[in-house]
Amino acid sequence: MSSMEKMWISFGSMGSLFLAMLFMFFVKTKFNNRFLKAIFGLIAYILLFIGFITMIYIIFNPTKA
């Protein structure tokens, strides 16, 4: 995998972590409906897990110079 591909994967990972943060913010502050809280909380945790796993992949899989 080239360095540019890893760069784009890391950008996607940071984006998913940012979306997880936004979803959790809205779950904690804006939603009153328990069903919406559960759905958006689940989406946030899935995005957090995906972002974490892809960041671990990027960190521990160095590119070849």
Taken as a percent bin, the fraction of beta residues is under 5%
In quaternary terms, these chains amount to: single chain
Query: How many individual β-strands?
Result: 0
Radius of gyration, in angstroms, nearest whole number? 15 Å
Residue windows where pLDDT falls under 50 for at least 5 positions: none
Average pLDDT works out at: 92
The share of residues in helices is: over 70%
> Domains counted in the coordinates: how many?
1
- Note the gap between the termini: 11 Å
Shape: elongated
Helix-strand string:
HH
The biggest sheet amounts to: none
Protein name: DUF2768 domain-containing protein
Pfam families: DUF2768 (PF10966)
InterPro entries: DUF2768
Keywords: Membrane, Transmembrane, Transmembrane helix
Describe the structure.
The chain is mainly α and 65 residues long. The protein has one domain. It is 82% helix and 0% strand. It has two helices and no strands. It has helices at residues 3-29, 34-59. Helix 1 packs antiparallel against helix 2 (34-59). The longest helix has 27 residues, at 3-29. The mean pLDDT is 92. Keywords: Membrane, Transmembrane, Transmembrane helix. The chain crosses the membrane at residues 6-27, 39-60. This is DUF2768 domain-containing protein.
Attribute tags:
DUF2768 domain-containing protein, 65 residues, 2 helices, mainly alpha, elongated, transmembrane helix, membrane, transmembrane
